[in-house]
Protein 1
Amino acid sequence: MVRSSDLIDPSVAAGEDLVVLRPEGLYCPAGNFYIDPWRPVDRAIVTHAHADHARRGHGHYLAHTASRDVLRTRLGEISLQELAYGESIDHFGVRVSLHPAGHVLGSAQVRLEHRGRVWVAAGDYFVSGTRHDPGDSNATCTPFEPVPCHCFITESTFGLPVYRWAPQRDVFAAINHWWSENAAAGRCSLLLGYSFGKAQRLLAGVDAGIGPIVVHAAVDALNRAYRAAGVALPPTKLADQVNDKSTFRGALVVAPPAVQQSGWSRRLGETSEAFASGCMQLRGARRRRNVDRGFVLSDHADWSGLQRAIAGTGAGRVIVTHGYEDVMVRWLREQGLEAGSFVTEYGDDHEQVVEAQAPGAAGAGQVGP
Amino acid sequence: MKHFARLFGELDSSTATHAKIDAMTRYFAQVPPADAAWAAYFLAGGKPRQIVATAALRASACEAAGLPEWLFEESYRAAGDLAETIAHVLAPPSRCSDWPLSFWIEQRLLPLRDEPVGERAARIVSYWSELDATGRLLLTKLIGGGFRVGVSKLMVQRSLAQVAALDAKVIAQRMMGYTDARHRPSAGDYLRLVSAQEANVRESGQPYPFFLAHALDVPAAEFAAALGPIGDWQVEWKYDGIRAQVVKRAGRVWIWSRGEELINEPFPDLLAAAAALPDGTVLDGEIVVWDGQGPAAFQLLQTRIARKHLTPRMLSEAPARFIAYDVLEWAGVDRRGMPQFERRDCLEAALGTAPGLSLSPTVSSPDWPGLAQLRQSSRERGVEGFMLKHRLARYGTGRTKSDGTWWKWKVDPLRVDAVLVYAQAGHGRRAGLYTDYTLAVWNRAPANAGQAQAVLDAMARHEPARPDALQLVAFAKAYTGLTDEEIRQVDRVVRLTSLDKFGPVRSVLPSLVFEIGFEAIQRSARHKSGIAVRFPRILRIRDDKPLHEADTLHTLNALLASTTRQC
């Protein structure tokens, strides 16, 4: 890792902004391209393949190599240029490179360098806790790396001090315990999580020795992409191919949230339902979800993680997007940073789930933020 | 505390009644009686006097977490619960302790009251640092007096009944007064609760569990089919007061509210009147303030309860009256198993001994339509409608129908169409959603849609209205009546149409009309509209109603005039 002082000369921080807000999305005027635009544009850099960041209808896409399969499955035959982490290209004098964000497979921070100025748009990212703990990063993708820059564009999905994630080993211990108890009682454990990212993280983290693992078709479609990228996931069965219903007793079933209280989940028999999300940190959200258990497992940074990520860039200026923008901006200003916000169309509020049909996946093909 | 925290987690995460009861039963069987005593107390709704003011808890938490006050407030707004906010904003525990619940309460929490302020704050912060998030949440709720988890007193009683292998009604009777604020439950108290021996409850001031009525949801035209002949029913007016039991035993009087709180203190006049009853008498009835003609507005009763010291003037200006409508014990004998009509005879005999108490009059009508006609006069009589009690009904426990039925046949609510002007995020299950609505009516009717639009345009420009100009006047807040899906819709509209934020409240550019229902309407100097309504709730969203057709202050004043008793 490079220290910020090695790369960044604070004296060049001023000048024309490298990224501005346009009705179509975040726009780089110097390079004439967009980052995660929400309206169709000619050139789009896509930080990751979640539906609210990777939309249809752009002329050309640039994304991380590992995003390719998911993007093609979701968007069809697009004109796609791929980059590996750290690899850079030059576009109208803007040097563009992608760096790991730790959010989902292929998720990237976009680093832009132009005339000595460096900006990073982080997209969605996962960093947790006040201190770096290598055992606590997202095991299903390349962990977040701080990239020194003058200006850092950060998300704020969980930008409040009440959002503090417990170490993942504790969360998985609780999930394993819940599953074991259900298995012992002959119940099915239905674990709800977004098909892309959360589901794979759950699969990679649970103790596969407890019982069989069954997945929904929407999850299976994405598992294939993960396995193809070399991410180790335990063996899984496709729910639609399970003929003997007694298989579900004692099994862990991983499915997208939309199956809750649907005909699909009724055939699992006696079931304990749980939902895995950062939102589950708060009792109100847990009770609204109406599940038996809520596990606090997020693919987004917690409050400490956000602060650590921002500090790690050495940036003097921070632009806050989707989440608790007002709170973060005020807090960062009180910490002596220059801070502002962009109003984006990502995330659609903290409680909302951006739903999109994954082509080829039957039923609730949901891809969450 | 860990056991109690685990139980809390189980109760909090489950929605099934039997699972909750089983979880409590497991807990009670597992912990020492001193802990079970406190757990039963808190679970059944007991609240000791607040140990530390919430403002002090807030300040200590901000300081311990190193957060500015505004950021703590933002967090609180998202979590919708102070204890939960505190539990999460503090750094993870440095060490974990596991003292028993009774130790926490008796050795640590209750003594906090007597500590100097500085020492108290230091102790609380140190207690937080030895608990995980659930433990902190519980501790903070116990200190702040806000402990609540989704179990009813009835469920706690059923669980204790399982532990003791007794009928839940026996537990219910033993539990009367158990959750009184001044009561400190001990191991001995708990053992008496679940003891296999029958205690002699008639010696003490214990009341009986209240029998609760069900709302009657049948159209009046179908009464004959649903309820049978009117002659099978004892009909009484339904009073809007405080449901209470008057217990007279061993020369003493106890007055218990339906919340099972002893309320002797606010009612010295009733204590004196009830002293004339013979020992071994328990009456059920309603406490109201009497204004010479009939029951006064509930407001007056409220102010009387709220007073710490009752002045002679208060007693003469707001005289209380106990309107008795049932007898549960007479001549020292439990009469609850007798049919309603026989209890009525008993009741009349009992009241003959105490002239200071009133008898709830029965209402007679040859048929149901006649009764429906009479019900129209409810508001001007200051009552809420009728109670229908089956002549053969025994006096049951709680909201059961197995012993017979009491129906409440309330008068239809008053209605107006009002405009949403402010919204505030809810708490608990509704945290983070805008669910608390302030509603307004026009100060006079707009001539047309254009006039209403001009008012909206001015609001959008943040121009304050001139006092005499056409404008919307807030008159009520409503929290209930919408489905979860409707709440989400309204929440979205509130976010999209926000004009200003004042702390947790947002003003909106009006676009929604709600039909509001309420039980009563009174003049009030406290409200800008000059009007206060009782039990306002949303009946439906009026998507069909344009803003300029919402109701006006004139509508409210007309309702006020039509419902005020003619003297």
Note: The mean pLDDT of chain B is 89.
Protein 2
Amino acid sequence: MPDPVFDVVVVGAGPAGLSAAKRAAESGARVALLDDNPKPGGQIWRSDPGHWKPLLGNLEPMCGVRVVTSPEPGRLTLEKFDGELEIGYGKLILATGARERFLPFPGWTLPNVMGAGGLQALVKSGLPISGKSVIVAGSGPLLLAVAKYMREHGARVEMVAEQASDSALVKFAFGLLGFPGKLLQTALFGSSLLGIRHRTSCWPVAAEGSGKLESVTFQRAGKTWKERCDYLACGFGLIPNVEIPLMLGCRLSPAGVWVDDHQQTSVPGVYCAGEVTGIGGLDLSLVEGEIAGYSAAGKPQAASALSSVRKRHRRFAERLESAFALRDELKSLPQDDTLICRCEDVSYGRVRQCSGWRDAKLHTRCGMGPCQGRVCGGAVEFLLGWKSESVRPPVFPARIGSLSGPKYPQP
Amino acid sequence: MPDTIRVSVNGTPITVPAGAMVSAAVAVAGANGFRKSVTGQPRGPLCGMGICFECRVTINGRPHCRSCQIPCEAGMEVRTDA
């Protein structure tokens, strides 16, 4: 085994990874910060260097690289667009973030039906949205952020449809009184959304169009109606990206990857921080990153000093989860002929006849395509209660060349 | 750095703002889909962040590239199979 090239390797350059890298580097560790996107910032600070640059400091991030496998403890194989490399670590911090939970309904595979964060990411990537009609649907605070962003960029936001009830949201809003910063944020969103139709207890039941999206059928209080739009931005909350931790053998908690008070996972020397340990938002991610960075760099006291801050932000996360809990009626969204696995085009009717994940994979190929169940997994978990906890390398489909030999970068 | 970048999508020249991802160029090109599913349905981007593989295209002859995570470079040749 080669000597570790870096004391601490951080995977994921969103808020948690950035603050982890900053604290570890400040503590004297040689740090590498990796991300599979072309720039740091994660999804929340994508194209927002004003937020991530100060955290990055002098650190040179390695962007556009993806973890493929770990050939042995202390080493990671990475793939980039035009090649592959390996990297050694003493301690590893996984800040792999979260993705949206998608729920299948008839027509959800049509082009221009996207995630809520998905459409926002695409607009940040250069998609012109000015003058287009957009409906934002699903669940969670992200919907309001996306609606606001779309409107600021010239889209006609026709409606925001939130599946949670009014009473759940009111309860959530009052709960925010204990969190002044959050309340302010919500109030700002509320006022800037004036004029946009906001419907609670409302969700899409079908998307229609020939070749691409043309209209969406919504349901609310037993009534259904059709809305025309160019884009449907639809996500039902977030789920943690636990694949790399699982591949390394980390144990899960009900919320995400299990960690101790110092953000260390069940695998010694491997830490997790941010949404991957459970959905909790920006502030929790930042403090978890700090704790992980200090811990991995051998500063346990500095890490412990932050535990009360983390506790406070975790309470906010719990409120969030209960306010936006998905209602059971959404389980009847997919019809028997609705595709649930978009990679292998497997229908819900075929999957629900199976006895569990393994059976479904073997007999229908659900979850066996390029995304490796990352999209259908969140749906299957909600619809059928199956949780997939087996991840085998490579953690993403990889080129043969990426698995064929060590190449070490110089620190 | 120039303000715009020219790439080709299925042989058609497309101009996008500097820093745009390949996914944006393909969308601007007006293709109804980025790829065809295994049963022939048109598909476009879903997650926008490298998870879902629905936006994959061929870039400079290299297949299965996730267009949402790859920045446009001048002269890039992008092909969709939708």
Note: Chain B has a mean pLDDT of 93.
Protein 3
Amino acid sequence: MNANPKPVSGYDVERVRRDFPILAREVHGKPLVFLDSAASAQRPAAVIAAVDAYERLHHANVHRGVHQLSQEATAMFEQARERVRRFVNAASTREVIFTRGTTESINLVAQSYARPRLQPGDEILLTTLEHHANIVPWQLVAGQTGAKVRAVPMDRRGVVSLEDLAAHLTDRTRIVAVAHVSNALGTVLPVREITRLAHARGAVVLIDGAQAVPHQAVDLAQLDCDFYAFSAHKMYGPTGIGVLVGRERLLEAMPPWQGGGDMILTVSFEKTTFNELPFKFEAGTPNISGAIGLGAAIDYIDSLGLDNIHTHEQRLLDVATEKLLRVPGLTIVGTAPDKAAVISFTLDGIHPHDLGTILDSEGVAVRTGHHCAMPVMEFFGVPATARASFACYSRESDVDALVRALGKAREVFS
Amino acid sequence: MDLKDLYREVILDHNKSPRLFGRLDPADSAADGHNPLCGDRLHVSVRLDGDRVSDLRFEGKGCAISVASASLMCEAVKGKSRADIAHLFDEIHTVLTHHDAPVPEDLGKLAALSGVREFPVRVKCASLCWHTLNAALDHSASTVKTE
């Protein structure tokens, strides 16, 4: 760890903060210190304005109607898809499917890819650090098919080793589904190597990228995974919209998951022909404004530069780690050498839930609880943790406010 | 919103030194309570003498509010009849969930929990032990959830 990290040159966090209107508000009479971006990040004015402009000037249903508004809405919606494609370097917009979010993306793969293929005794391989969204859909499909869910263990730092992963791959492993970044611990997984190992054994790979895309550049051509899922609201976009990027060859062979409008070419009561990719998987009127907001969020991220955001957050992670470790009785849960800007911690003698309430009274928003990762909590033997997570607008004084509020918690419980 | 309203002296004291903590063995009835949101888990065991709870214990892990509430509850209901306990439960439930409800005088030390109502997300922490006790009294063997 760098003892005296320097601010990222040219990255003016105060200027970035002015792009986020909500950061100016107060909570309980104190300035808001928002350290819960891993749960949902705030939106910059550019995203709010893009959604607003669409609603005011362009809204109509997409892929229908020849009138002007429908054409405008369709063009904006499809531009957003192309924006997403470039953002993660997918091969084609045919591979970019809009969903409600990461959870729906994973469920889509579980039900449409896995369910028709899995045989009793086949294996789905996860890791112990997964979010519930990357556990439960696989348990459901395992229950439906007789396949088994297995999990690669992690060590006390929250690291999953490639050796362990390789040892868990068998001839029956059909699917490997892993987080790119752990939401509870911050661990960054070596997904490229994991993909290579899994492919060598003939397994298909899904990566839950919800916590990765806001923090680091993702190049799907390099990763070479088969499915990649993420959500807009973790990356400064709206809620209720997310993405599944899938390998075209696999998507082509998959049956539609939901039926309805937009996913069909012709319908008669005898036979329905399905629409081509990606529309085959987008039944019903989609979240049009959400997709446009996501496109604007990507533009915003690009305007700052993901590499700059990454460097800024990593510096903040170092500073915060150092300052928090100086708080008496504080233990950081999740100490992987390669971490995103997420710090889970416990404080001796104070339950995380009490901590959350006391920090909130000081205007400091952190997540407390099991972070939808109960197996992780079980592994570390804690019922819950408090979690501070950082984003492009987080600053060192947020860390100081957190440390002061932790002092306040100590006072209350002294 | 004042933290001192939530974390009153009585609550901090009962959190630090919970009364009637442990497990009765043998017990006439027992139940487990679980609040999945915060991971709180409680076990309440009771001994009955006719219609009365002659003795009870609780054990488990949780936040200060849930531990203090369980400790205060055990003190308050020990020796009481089922009808008296049901009455207390109604009173505490009203106090916890109704912003303007007056705090009845017969609540005694349990009145210390009235500050919880200013913190709606914490109400479940305070009520878990009561639901668990009710389950034990109903001889329900299953785990109680506040979700």
Note: The first strand of chain B starts at residue 29 and ends at 35.
Protein 4
Amino acid sequence: MRVLLAAFEKGWAHPDGLGEASSQARHLLNSAREEIAAALEVTPGEVEFWGEPALISPMAILGAPNFSHGNFVAGATERQDILAMGARAHSMSIIPVSHEGLIDRDLFLEAIESNSTVALQAANGETGVRQDLADLSALTGSLNAQLHLDYSAAGPLVKLPAYWSTADFPAKSWDGPSGLGIMLIHRDHRWVNPLTSAIARRSPGSYSLPLVLAAAASLTGWIDDSKKESERIRTLVALMRTVIKQTIADVDIAGSGAVNQSLPHILSISFLNVSGEELVSRLAREGFAVASGSACIASAIEPSHVLKAMGVLTHGNIRISLLHGVQESEVKRLLALLPGIIEKLRSESGL
Amino acid sequence: MREIDCLGALCPTPIIQLGKAIKDIAAGEVIILKADDPATESDLHAWARMTGNNVISLAEHTYKIIKN
């Protein structure tokens, strides 16, 4: 919050304007761009700021050369808004994933042509499953297809592979401010703004400079924090996987949890014969805020397409995300409460 | 052969009804489940994997479950 307030004090002027305040704003913008570029290991010229983070992936994909007359290739667990881009392509291949959530490599390779646009997620936001980006991006590059990478769940936890064309990094992915995202455009990529009225611009330019400054200021600290916290949090998630399997019958856990195949902080579990909505509600009463991929919650109509694609049970699902600073005592409290809650819910349904 | 009609019922009711019914039948016996909740088909296959039983889709919203 302090960072954000300072950013609003310093960055109020328009960087394109005349005068000292604008000159200072320009300097601050350039410094922020350099700081973010260094942290993400790209060049400053590859960094574009967007004030509408939700539009970054769709626009990056739409602006890929050949998108509209090539085959669009995406994994079955990609974000719904990315999968929806297939309707605008010449053709689309949705690549199935294994029970562990990993893209079928052979089918992936079969689907790509030189004029293809490929969309891959560095990691899935619901399950934490990480794709083998090094391998899949190399395959894409070997065929000279365009590759868009979705980093909305992984953020800076996962490095960019050697080959990429565009990438989507919302500032929220490093606990930065909402309402700001980064579109990375590789210097060798011929991205064209699909909005013909803005064809010469690489971003709408409607981002908030104070949010850019706050995002840059928070990024390096978050990366340093992650280096210390990731291993500790991963150990807590591994503890949850083990204890839940030992203490509760009939559970389905999404993803293998292997270090190179998972984000450290996300755990998605489904409990057979339990309503996801009831479970979320009972946990909220105990002070735990969790999300759910089930259709049996008030805000959902369909079950999670991610869990379906993996063949994981979709009902009775909760998604736990551990934040930096989470206390081991809280994790243990959850583990102590869960068996009783599940038993009660199952018995209330007559099982 | 037992038939369970869960048309119109929302998840997890179809799976819960199946779970109750399957306790009362012997190995090799069959239950026909009718359910149109969008989670049913996918969850039936997950349920079969988790419980060691078999599921076959017969028609839209109609499933044959064979107890192992």
Note: Chain A touches chain B through 24 residues (CB under 8 Å).
